[in-house]
Design brief:
The complex is a heterodimer. By secondary structure, chain A is α+β, with helices and mostly antiparallel strands. Chain A has a single domain (21-152), classed as Alpha-Beta Complex (Aldehyde Oxidoreductase, domain 3). Helix content of chain A is 28%, strand content 32%. Chain A has four helices and nine strands; from the N terminus they run E-H-E-E-E-H-E-E-E-H-E-E-H. The longest helix of chain A has 19 residues, at 52-70. By secondary structure, chain B is α+β, with helices and mostly antiparallel strands. Chain B has a single domain (4-77), classed as Ubiquitin-like (UB roll) (Roll). Chain B is 27% helix and 25% strand. Chain B has a five-stranded mixed beta sheet with strand order 2-1-5-3-4. In chain B, strand 3 and strand 4 (60-62) form a beta hairpin. Chain B is globular and about 40 Å long. The chains are: A alpha+beta, B alpha+beta. The A-B interface holds A 32, 48-51, 53-57, 79, 90-91, 111, 114-123, 133-143, 151-152, 154, 156, 158-159 and B 7, 9-11, 14, 51-56, 58-61, 63-65, 75, 77-83.
């Protein structure tokens, strides 16, 4: 089974499968990299941690759901874990599709789904020596009382 | 009685000062929700964060109304922020 979580730096090229999928004329690629600032604070480096069994399952489910939903033959996602420096690759998502429209759409859908659903946490270390976990999305599926949406779905910053 | 073990992640781990939290109890703990009520009483510093945590057994999200897992282990997953 292919890996979807990596404790080592992620290489993009092997994920593209350019020597396969001759029926595909489009390749959409998203690479999320570590940014040097967040909400006005200067970021020195960061650390990603995960509940790995569930995170791997969620990412595989997203790959599968994206293929089904957009009718594309190849969706590949790898999320990095551990200590990352500014500019390091945090997430890669590759979609191969017959045409560009579904490649772009599927790629965006898959990245959003991973960010909102995979149990991965980002701890930012700031230049002032402090650190904090980035506020994220609640993944409980039994919070169905009419709680205000903003309470379950705090700010999420996106790369790029 | 075997203790109930909570695995803690991210800011929850930081609040508790450790990646695991064991709660000893003689009480009858039937559901995941019961276990969380007990944890909130034993570790008040975590109580305010539990509402927005997902509970996981193995690689599966479980609900508050579900039975306590047979291995009496619950992973507590605070809001996520990957990507």
């Amino acid at each position: 089974m292919t890996h979807v979580l990596s404790h080592d730096p992620v290489a993009v090229d092997p994920l593209l499968e350019l020597d396969a999928h001759p029926e595909c004329g489009g390749l959409a690629l998203f690479v999320g990299t570590v940014r040097d600032h967040h909400e006005g604070r200067s970021v020195r480096h960061l650390k990603y941690t995960a509940h790995e069994p569930l995170a791997a399952k969620v990412i595989r489910d997203v790959e599968h759901a994206t293929r089904e939903r957009y009718g594309v033959p190849y969706v590949r996602i790898v999320h990095r874990l551990g200590d990352l420096a500014i500019g390091d690759i945090a997430i890669v998502c590759v979609v191969r599709a017959p045409h560009r429209a579904e490649a772009f759409d599927a790629c965006r859908y898959a990245v959003d789904a991973v960010k909102h659903g995979a149990p991965i946490w980002k701890e930012e270390f700031y230049t002032d020596g402090s650190s904090a976990f980035v506020e994220g999305c609640c993944i409980r599926d039994d919070l169905d009382e009419p709680a205000p949406a903003a309470h379950r779905h705090h700010t999420h910053t996106s790369h790029g | 009685m075997t203790p109930i073990v909570f695995e803690l992640y991210a800011n929850l781990e930081r609040l508790a000062g450790g990646s695991e939290c064991r709660v000893e109890t003689d009480a009858d703990v039937a559901t995941v929700g019961d276990a969380l009520t007990l944890l909130a009483r034993e570790r008040p510093e975590l109580a305010g964060s539990l509402e927005r945590c997902a509970c996981v057994s193995g690689d599966t999200i479980i609900r508050r109304a579900d039975a306590l897992p047979a291995d009496r282990r619950i992973a507590l997953l605070p809001p996520v922020a990957g990507g």
